[in-house]
Amino acid sequence: MQRCNEHENVREFNQISYKVHSNVTPFIEFNENYREVVNQYEEQFQKLSLDMENFFYRRKQPEEEFQRKMDFCSQLKRTIQKYCPSWIFDIVPTGSSVSGLATSNSDLDVAIHIPQAIKVMHCFTDRIVFFRKIQLEILQIVRRIVVNDEEFKKRINFDKGVQLVQAQIQILKIETVDGIECDISVVLETFLSSMHNSLLIRHFHHIDSRFGPLCAIVKQWAASTEVKKPKEGGFNSYALVLLVIHFLQCGTLPPILPHIQEIYEGKNVIAQDEHRFPKKLDFGAPLPGKIPEIEINPAPVALLFFQFVHYYLHFDFQKYYISMRKAMVINRNRSHSSDVRIQDKKEVYIQDPFDSHNPGRTVNSLKNIKITLRDTVSKFLPNGNNFKFPTLDDILYMDSSKAKFDNEEDRDDAPEEEEKQNL
User: Fold this and answer.
1) Which of 67, 142, 349, 363 would give a disulfide with 343, using CB separation of 3.0 to 4.6 Å?
2) Nearest C-alpha neighbor of 99 from the set 109, 111, 87, 91
3) Class assignment of domain 2-40+195-406?
4) pLDDT (tens digit, 9 = 90+) per residue, 311-365?
């Protein structure tokens, strides 16, 4: 009894120190069900972990490529300023290129951040129509500038052209002669969420060396199984990274990632929400002060991946949502937030760390995703004399469960999560 109380006290200390709310039931069930497997195949988990880490570091964006991308951004800003000296704007690289998760030859996402452009907004009644109109006009101006400026057009690969894409988010697509594929968007709001999200992810990448490899493995696994296929009802890449963060904060014990928004509140280095945020960010600056010291979680990357797929296999997305802002799981029906009520019809609700949008909104096919999660868990489970512990390729290049599901007449009773939904 005393040892149990001591364990509970340590767990509570870890949560309080890291400002997170652990979702302990799935972790306890994982240990009860798979402790023998983890112990029996400890060496195989270690080897697979090394392979996963090597996969990440071999594919990681080299420093030389990062510098070329930053040089492109600097030249883009100088070129626009030359022709539009009255514009008050900034060129902000965002996404994986600056967060630390980029692979070699990955796209560069750039935002033209120009809140000055909405000062005339009182003349318009429809905010969305107005925003799209101004964004389109700015992108058209920038396109004319870059294709006609004598210096800048030397960088453009005109075999691919400069394309203006008028989708839900309007972008200007440019490919350079040295292979940089750049998507340029226009942000009119004062709060540039993509920049703050990128900085948050960058800090997590530096806090724990397992975060980057785990994100890379999850994204590649999700791509091969079509779990990451937002246009067809799957997750997008950003949502998958948030799922990894949530799991490392709340789904494994002891927690691996702290809730740094809460820990450094008032330090003016991390945004709290879309209304409270630092006006300038330094992506090269460390966090102000040490992360609190807690009990160390020694799990290697492969074991964390196994725990990750088990955690979301049993996560009841219909009943609960993930609050990145509070680092916890919350019952949808018990929330009085208007943002939560708006997301009632969405299969997955992930509350963004800063603003009100739902990065999980693209998901409309949880059934197939759950089947994929179940099939992935089963790869780690001995099934007789012919069992072979999964290799990295076995994980990264799994078949899509959607195809298998569509080829069978009745799989309604197959997913394990329908028999046992746990949190």
Assistant:
1) 349
2) 109
3) mainly alpha
4) 999 999 999 999 999 999 999 887 767 767 777 778 999 999 998 889 999 999 8
